[in-house]
Amino acid sequence: MQNVSCPGCGAQVAFRSHASVMAVCEYCKTTVLKDADTVKDFGKMSSVLEDYSPLQLGSSGVFGGRSFDVIGRIQLRYSAGMWNEWYLLFEDGTAAWLGDSSGQFTLTTEKTGNAKLPAFADIVVAQTYEIAGKSYLAAEVRIADCIGGQGELPFKVGPGWQARLADFRTGSSFLTLDYSDINPQRDAQSTDSSEQQPAVYTGKAVTLSELKCQLLRDDESIKASAGKYRGKINRLDCPSCGANIDYLPGLTANVICPSCQSQLDTSGPVAQVLASADRMAKLSTTLELGAKATISATAYQIIGLMKRKDEENTVWTEYLLYSARAGFLWLIETNEGWARAQVLADWPLWYHGENATLGNKSYKKLYDYRAKVIFAAGAFNWRVQVGDSLNVTEFESGQNKLAAEIGTDEITWSLSSPVAADQIRAWFGDTIKADKAGKSVFDDEEATVALSRKFIFWILAINVIPLLGNFDANWWVVGLAVAAIYYPAKFLGPAGKGEE
């Protein structure tokens, strides 16, 4: 460890890692740049926004049998929100990064090699790339601005510094290409691949419990600094219209007011209006925002909902549920029934063929379509707005479905399974509105069957009347035909419904 005096205020600034080139004075926020045996004042670093992360400088944990300490972080903002990158120092002197975004974490370490890597501008989301001898799917491409920093860091950052990053996934493996030190103009114009090589970081998705993290901020500490408890449903007043909105501090940084449709950023302690919208009529949905359910003995609450449609104007509704114990869950209501879906941390293997493999199970491709958001309200853990559209590829294995949602900058995978309408009623009970409680897509099917039965009976009546006026020896043939139509029609409906 090396201790130096802050050029700004004289306080002691510690460099625990020999690889660290700068540190932020915790007292005056001066950026202290270590250069050989001297230190320089590199200007002021913006204070990090008080967020809801349980991590802090001094937190510790274990990964791969090695202990680590959290010694620094940078806070980054991009078009879809904000996240933290925590700088870790292992007991053997090596370092790693712990990405922290909306309660999801990835741990990566830098890898060296001579592999030829794609230019940043050439990376296309959902395309396959061979990197370090393994096939990866491009998962996300983004440009982010540094908005704050703390502690020690291995490179110089400050106002105006941008991160240019591309994330790749295969199964549970995670890889990041960092193009931040490559000049964008040189990246686009240079033909010398040696000048375009980004830093390579490989790792995996993790949880804080898996890392055996200690010295985390508790709920009271987070509330004291950020004003609210992390991951517990709070109510805020819309800055645009004053309506009450439920959201999850630290987990749902993007909120759409159900009353005025204003888009809000709730990543910090104070909600900010990102965009105002024309006031829309409130849509009636089977389940409402705030509805509570007990699913698998776990309490959930609906915090967001959106309606989407495809190219054929088929409309469906998606409900985002949250449980403090189990996290996020989706319920999807279509004209074919209900399904529950979970966003996947471990991705399927898929190389744009007719099959995708998750675990030991193969899923066959069903169809491709484009989904467009036509209504959204409530809190979400990503930025969504009316008009957003993306490509969806669905796969099927038995009753289960895999879905890849592919946007311009990101791809996500989810796994869904069907749920009976009666099960939805059991989960939500009286929270379903009275006029909706007994209605489902199965009721629509029953109404269709009833109409079909009436139609068949009218056909019978039309054909029986002439028979009465022409009662000859062939009456039994007509009678058999009538019976063949009547009895199946009579028993349509209840049996059919019971089999759903």
> In whole angstroms, how far apart are the ends?
68 Å
The share of residues in helices is 10-25%
Structural class: alpha+beta
Q: What's the domain count?
A: 3
Number of strands: 30
Main sheet properties: 8 strands, antiparallel, barrel
**Shape estimate:** globular
Radius of gyration from CA coordinates: 29 Å
Domain DUF4178: 56-178, 289-419
Protein name: DUF4178 domain-containing protein
InterPro entries: DUF4178
Organism: Undibacterium piscinae
Please describe the structure with a list of short key phrases separated by commas or semicolons.
7 helices, 3 domains, eight-stranded antiparallel barrel, disordered C terminus, 30 strands, alpha+beta, eight-stranded antiparallel β-barrel, 500 residues
Short précis:
The chain is α+β, with helices and mostly antiparallel strands and 500 residues long.
Describe what you observe in this structure.
By secondary structure, the chain is of the alpha+beta class. The chain folds into three domains: 46-206, no CATH class; 283-437, no CATH class; 441-498. The chain is 15% helix and 44% strand. It has seven helices and 30 strands. The chain has helices spanning 184-189, 219-226, 421-428, 434-437, 441-469, 475-490, 494-498; strands spanning 2-5, 12-15, 22-24, 30-35, 38-44, 60-63, 66-78, 81-90, 95-101, 104-111, 128-131, 134-153, 162-170, 173-178, 199-206, 234-237, 244-247, 254-256, 263-265, 272-275, 292-295, 298-309, 315-323, 327-334, 337-343, 355-358, 361-380, 389-397, 400-406, 411-419. The chain has an eight-stranded antiparallel barrel with strand order 7-8-9-10-15-14-13-12. Strands 22-23-24-25-30-29-28-27 form an eight-stranded antiparallel beta barrel. A two-stranded antiparallel sheet has the order 1-2. A hairpin with a 6-residue loop joins strand 19 (263-265) and strand 20 (272-275). Helix 5 (441-469) runs antiparallel to helix 6 (475-490). The longest helix is centred in the last third of the chain and has 29 residues, at 441-469. The protein is globular, with a radius of gyration of 29 Å. Residues 38-42, 434-450 and 492-500 have low confidence and may be disordered.
